[in-house]
Amino acid sequence: MSCVQHMLLAMGMAFALPALSFAGKSPAGRPDFVPTLQSASIAAPSPSALTGAWRSAPDETPLSSPFDESVWGKNAKSIRTVQMTIRPKGDATLTVNQKVVDGRGRTVPGSTSIEQVQIVLGPIQRSTEVRCDLTVEIKQAERRYPDDPGSTWALEGLKVGVSTFTDDPGTLEIRVDTPEGRGSFWERLRRATSKKPSRTP
User: Which one of 24, 33, 34, 198 counts the least CB within 10 Å of its CB?
Assistant: First the structure.
């Protein structure tokens, strides 16, 4: 197996996370039960109320298996960050950045990937007491590798979920199912705030 094949295989393993299950359960434990929006339930924020930038904290995963160490070296780790920008009418851009850094914290050449998804947020699809799952329409999705400008392709079959929380309006939950069946994940995003630098008298 060539060096490039080793690297691509390692990248797939580094970013692979368990797939998500969205099925709800009733108090009686019925697996086919899905909480629905009742007439007296809480309304989700309108798209205009969600307008702005939302960001996740970096998600770091150590790459410590013998195979990972043979490709990336010791103490390497994969890092994923997620950002979403929402416009007043519900149009949004979801960006997922992934990379591998070596034991010295340097980004490994060729390991950075960027997934960008254009979506439209709609009304509530289902809800529970404090959680609202919004309708999400995917307009366009693509993955590219910045180190290789020609390696950009569409992500057919990508699925994205967006949820809000009435008890924590400053948080969004993003759920991403990748078309290849691996690398699916969920992430909490916080509303980004721009802090003005403090001035020293």
Answer: 198
